[in-house]
Each structure stands twice: as structure tokens, then as C-alpha cells.
Amino acid sequence: MSVCALIPTYDNAATLERVVRGVAPYVERVIVVDDGSGPAARDVARDLARRELAHVVLRERNGGKGAAVKAGLAEARRLGYAHALQIDADGQHAADDVPRLLEASRLDPRALVLGQPVFDATAPRGRRVARQLSVLFCALETLSRRVGDPLCGFRVYPVPEALAAGARGDAMDFDPEVAVRLVWRGTPVLHVATRVRYVPAAEGGVSHYRLLRDTLLITWMHARLCVLGLLLLLSWPHRRFTR
Ligand SMILES: Nc1nc2c(ncn2[C@@H]2O[C@H](COP(=O)(O)OP(=O)(O)OP(=O)(O)O)[C@@H](O)[C@H]2O)c(=O)[nH]1
Ligand SMILES: [Mg+2]
Asked: Which residue in 87, 66, 72 sits closest to 31, CA to CA?
């Protein structure tokens, strides 16, 4: 199975190299997409490329997490990878769980493998509420519980399928949107429990999640998917009998 890691990053100067080194032993190549970071983090990304620790895509301007992931998926396809393991650059995911995610992907190469986060006391309350809201919307949109945690950025994509899903979101709305669209396309979803820890600022942990703005953005995306899902449902008998 040809698999790369895909790390979208925006201003993670203190944690990026650690994340790259954490996933590198398990994949053929690490793709870092620097999403228009400031000079300090950009230097870290350039240095990773110079030392050949990662294949680095530098985006001139910040375009949002979703835009960065889509650019990384396109690069993964161009380089010939069938699967991409996505992981955040802020160090909140457990790199030693990568083999478990990849094992699930090997068991069913067609599947989207989602990390099912196990939070500790470091998880902010606001983020948990946003997550519950997104879980509820996904259940409505897919009429199922197939999407366990739509917001977890620790996952394995079958690359061609993920690109073909056509998710529009360029920001934090991308992760849940692509999961729902993949379910609509008939992609199986597997879940792997994994610890998530919010790295303290003193250790270089940063979050760019803007609680109100990003939660509203995600809600708006879900509202659109609910309408689209309803239209798909209504057109289903027609599509079925005209196939
Ligand atoms: N927020 C944000 N993240 C980006 C962007 N571009 C790339 N990323 C990366 O996307 C990943 C997730 O971003 P976070 O800000 O940690 O968002 P999150 O994990 O959903 O939020 P937290 O739960 O607060 O950590 C990180 O690796 C970011 O560096 C961007 O424009 N905005
Ligand atoms: Mg994060």
C-alpha cells in the first residue's frame, strides 16, 4: 500500500518538526503543506525540505485548513500515493497510533479511516460542544452514525476518492464535509480510538480554531449539506430506476 503522511500547517513553528519525525517511520514520504505561515514557521518548513525530512508545499497566502489539505491531496495524487494519513501539526495527535490507523486502512483500502478522539482534561469545553453539534448534523445528513467524529484531523484518506468527493470547504468546514460526501459516495468508514491532548502553550501548542467564527462556518456548511442530502434522498428512487 503506497501511503504518505499529509500535514497541513499554519504557524506551528514549535511542534512541526516533532510531528514530522513522529509519523515519518510509518510512511513512505511526509508531505507538509505550509499554509502561508509567518517567517518563523516558514523557516522550519523550508529547513525540513532542505534536510529532506519532508516534501514541502509552500502556499504563498493563508487559505485555510481545507485548502491546505486539498492541495496536499492533489500533491499526493501527483506523486502516486493511493492513501494519505492526515495529522495536525500542533502535536495534539498520538503519532504512535499511526500504525493502528494504517492497519485499519490496509484491512479495507477503500475506507476512510477516522480517528475517534479520546480527550483528557486539556480539551476545551467549547470545542466539545462544537463537536457534538457536528456529530448530530452528520447523523442527519447520512441518516446513520457512520461518521464517528467529523472534526478529528487524524485520519486516512483513499486519495482519489477524497479528491473526487468534491468538498468545497476551504477552512475548518472541510473535515466534516469530506467525511459526509464520502459516505454519500458509498465509501466505508472505519474508526480507531486515539488519545487527543491539547499541548500547552508553554510547550509550543497553538490552536487557530476561532470558536465563534469556525463553529458558525461549520454550522453553515452543515445546513447546506442537510438541504443537499434531502435533495439526494428525494432523487434516489429516480436515480435508482433510471440507472
Ligand atoms: N486554523 C487553521 N489551521 C490551519 C490553517 N491552515 C492549516 N492549518 C492546520 O490545520 C491543523 C488544525 O488546526 P487547529 O488550529 O489545530 O484546529 P483544530 O485542531 O480543529 O482545533 P483545536 O481543537 O483547537 O486544536 C493544524 O495543523 C494547523 O496548522 C488555517 O488557515 N487555519
Ligand atoms: Mg489542533
From this structure: 72
